[in-house]
Specification:
With 101 residues, the chain is mainly α. It contains four helices and two strands; from the N terminus they run αβαβαα. It has a two-stranded parallel ribbon with strand order 1-2. It is elongated, with a radius of gyration of 17 Å.
Length: 101
């Protein structure tokens, strides 16, 4: 639902999920640069069994859709308000910091 704080698993960018997959005995491939994604997909597709593709990203990176709808802006406003009211200023600071780079 738009505007609700995230609940559940919080995927951290510093965790190497490809290494976790390798420890479980399956092929693990990690993408650091988006330009390397096609090669990683080929390696993953060529695996004889299961594989895991992990990517390094910013969890608070904003992506502007091609057509921004009022409902999306409203949902984002609710999210920011709820994060502020719930005392999660660190999430807001991380969101601002990761998008000003």
């Amino acid at each position: 639902m738009p505007g609700l704080a995230q609940l559940g698993t919080d995927f951290k960018p510093d965790v190497n999920y490809a290494r976790i997959a390798e420890a479980a005995g399956i092929l693990g491939v990690r993408v650091e640069d988006p330009a390397g994604l096609p090669g990683c997909h080929k390696a993953s597709d060529g695996a004889s069994g299961a594989s895991a593709l992990g990517r390094s990203d910013q969890p608070y990176e904003l992506i502007k859709p091609p057509d921004l709808k009022l409902s999306q802006a409203w949902g984002f406003s609710l999210f920011m308000l709820k994060e502020t009211v719930l005392g999660n200023a660190s999430n807001i600071n991380e969101l601002i910091g990761s998008n000003l780079r």
